Amino acid sequence: MTYTPAITGTGVFTPETSISNAELVEAFNAYADRFNAENKNQIEAGEIQAKEHSSEDFIFKASGIERRYVMDKSGVLDPEVMHPLLRQRGDDEPGIMSEMAVDAAKKALAQAGKGPDDVDAVICAASNLERAYPAIAIEIQELLGIKGFAFDMNVACSSATFGIQAAADMVRSGSIRSALVVNPEICSAHLEWRDRDCHFIFGDVATAVLIERLEDAKGSHFEIRSTRCETVFSNNIRNNNGFLRRSRPDGMKDRRDMQFMQNGRKVFKEVLPMVSQHIADHIAEEGVENTQLRRLWLHQANKTMNDFIGKKVLGRTPEPGEQPNILQDYANTSSAGSMIAFSKYSDDLGDGDFGLICSFGAGYSVGSVLVQRHD
């Protein structure tokens, strides 16, 4: 016997502190001036390049971002530090990612009208993890008081949609009744805040969705009609560090490859057609016309990218509200971005309306979830 999976609840944890573009630019330019002064002789000799100033106009034009939430503001804005200062927690304390995820998960459960006893599995899907093991997901499971099983997974910015596919497949097969997919993203810890080309890109957040059997849903929900995932290997977005670090050991200070890196031009050129075709093929396989899509909840990496994809998929420029952006407030939050957009901009859809969640990024990877609203 097979079951139909549905998204019955969502939740978003938002950090208390945020950094505006103006604050970020002030800190970066102070760092750049400090660097240029300390390396004046080498710069004049042509041995190294001087650091250019950043600007609010440059950041907004490049990304559409106006501000970002972060778990630590002080370290990022200190020209002598330029990375978050996250306290090393003891082994007997909850991890920072687990705390973020639990907040979002409780909100998702409350919206669905369910409790820990109604959940059989927890999947922690995120682009960076604070440790290798024990799994962050198992800690989240423990903190929530959920029985069953839990595991971590990482598909970079597509982690959330890949996690939803894994959960939906398990619900569909009957192996579980429901699963929480949580996405705690501390992107500030793997961003190189000293690099003008990317110092503005990321923010921190956590999201959660509860996926259940359709028959167990209470109130309005979104039937998961189908999911589709795709990967193609590329080095154009890469982080050689692996797991999230609190601070940089001395031997790694000059290892630029140990933080987020990307070849932006190649990513634009190669990812945009891949994602657009992926979505077109997905809805075609389900017999859904692009004219039937009421909403596109896209990965929140760059407004220009989303505008391009939306126009390709719909065959026209999306109307306001058809493709909501949360970039201006949250910046790029990796896998959580599309889920923030879904959580905040889905209540207005009517019974029977179709929408599509899509995330994409390093790998390359792209995942899409076709949903239909039921009241």
Looking at the structure, the CATH topology of the domain at 223-374 is: Peroxisomal Thiolase, Chain A, domain 1
- Give the strand order of the largest sheet, numbering strands 1, 2, ... along the chain: 5-4-6-7-1-8-13-12-11
Principal-axes shape call = globular
CATH architecture of the domain at 223-374: 3-Layer(aba) Sandwich
Give the N-to-C terminal Cα separation: 25 Å
Q: What sequence of helices (H) and strands (E) makes up the elements?
A: EEHHHEHEHEHEEEEEHEHHHEE
Number of strands: 13
Helix content class: 25-40%
Strand content: 15-25%
Spatial extent as radius of gyration: 21 Å
Identify the CATH homologous superfamily of the domain at 223-374.
Answer: Thiolase/Chalcone synthase
Largest sheet: 9 strands, mixed
What CATH first level of the domain at 223-374 would be assigned? Alpha Beta
Residue-averaged pLDDT: 92
In a nutshell, what does this entry contain?
The chain has ten helices and 13 strands. It has helices spanning 21-38, 40-44, 56-63, 96-112, 136-144, 159-173, 264-285, 303-314, 327-330, 337-344; strands at residues 5-13, 17-20, 67-70, 121-125, 149-153, 178-186, 204-213, 221-231, 237-238, 261-262, 293-298, 354-361, 365-374. The strands form three sheets. It has a nine-stranded mixed beta sheet with strand order 5-4-6-7-1-8-13-12-11, sandwiched between helices. Strands 2-3 form a two-stranded antiparallel sheet. It has a two-stranded antiparallel ribbon with strand order 9-10.
